[in-house]
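Give me structure tokens for this 300-residue protein.
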Amino acid sequence: MTTQDWFWVILLGVGWGAVFYFNEVLLRELGPVTISVGRIGVAAIATWAVVLATGRFRALPPAMLAAIAVQGTLMFAAPFTVFTLGQQTITSGAAGIINAMTPIMVVIVSHFWPGGERASWAKSVGVVLGFSGIVFLTVPAMRGEGASSLWGLLFTLLAPVSYGFALNWVRRLKAVDPLLMLAWAFSFATVAMSAVAFPLEGLPGPVGPQTVASVLVLGVVLTAFAFIVFFLLLPRVGATNMSTVTFVAPVSAVFLGVALLGESVDIWKLGGMGAIFLGLLMIDGRVVRRWRAAKDQPSG
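Here you go.
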């Protein structure tokens, strides 16, 4: 990859780690489902503006729109809402670390997905390491200690599970312009979550300027812009290089949680993050391939 490509990949990681900080800020004045609606709705408006400004709009058949609606539910509506619900009882840093389980869930879902990729021994080890990291994270909660509840940590795991299904389902949408797919997916997700948010939480009341600014940053920058960059960058740099995002995001989430929210970092959180990182390295495969190449080189 070029230096510019690395810049965007790392920036995406930092930005997606910051999502959990903004969730914490918004939970002070908004309900968790309302936050999801605001984030996705703003992202939909911003993405449609890009689609229309660049002349990318094309009519899509109903079957394709239905497939995009499923993608919007799995990739945006469900996980975004799970995280905001979970962050009512867990720290932003813990949420960021759990989000790093996404590639591990992709491996599990892909193994059983029709036509999906079967897990190699290295990826299987990565899965075990990943879940070991979750066990580390839950130890303080099981002892009745720490700032995160056990049920919140386990519930939040549903978000990476949903991403795992979404990143397999998206293979059906290869023929669709990624920007157009995102615009429709955000729109369907907004409608779906609005139908849940307003009966449960009602219309939001007056909010402060920090809340408004946080929704705009979360929706425009960290959702619409970030996912547009992600899908445009992916064909050029490849899935393996893009996986670097999953190493950067939890570090960003933990750092911002400590620096801006006063959260603490204990040995269990570091151990959990370390185990998940080792799992991601095994799934990434580069370390294993280099080890095999070094092993196969003739000595002497």
